[in-house]
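Each record in this resource describes a single protein on a pair of labelled lines. The shape at a given residue is found from the number at the same position. The record below illustrates this layout:

***
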Amino acid sequence: MMRVLGIDVGERRVGLAVSDVTQTLARPLTTLSVKGMHDAVSRVVGEIERLAADEDGLAAIVVGIPARLDGSPSKQTPRVTAFVEALAARTMLPIVRMDERLTSREAESRLAVRERDWRRRKERLDAAAAAIILQDYLDRDR
């Protein structure tokens, strides 16, 4: 089996998470500080190439799609959809879109249990949110 990459796309930061090879557990990988859409896509493609070159490789990519609580598109949805389309043009890996409602809040509350300093939490928040999105996908696929 191969790993799966999870992505939480923000305006200034992109959180990345990766699964184990059995596609059972997701863990935060890194948070990339980005300057716009083009930079975000280029930096993520670099990470994808690095991960795909490892012996465990990559099987797929899961991207969190923002939505309002009622499921309707949010103001961030078109930007993330454009990111997914730009990413799809640069990789042959399948890209799965996952609902990401409330993942940042869940990540914040999980991090707050272990990390009191909000600055440190903020640094790790996007990768933690990506891990929650990816874990939701892995659990759904079981």
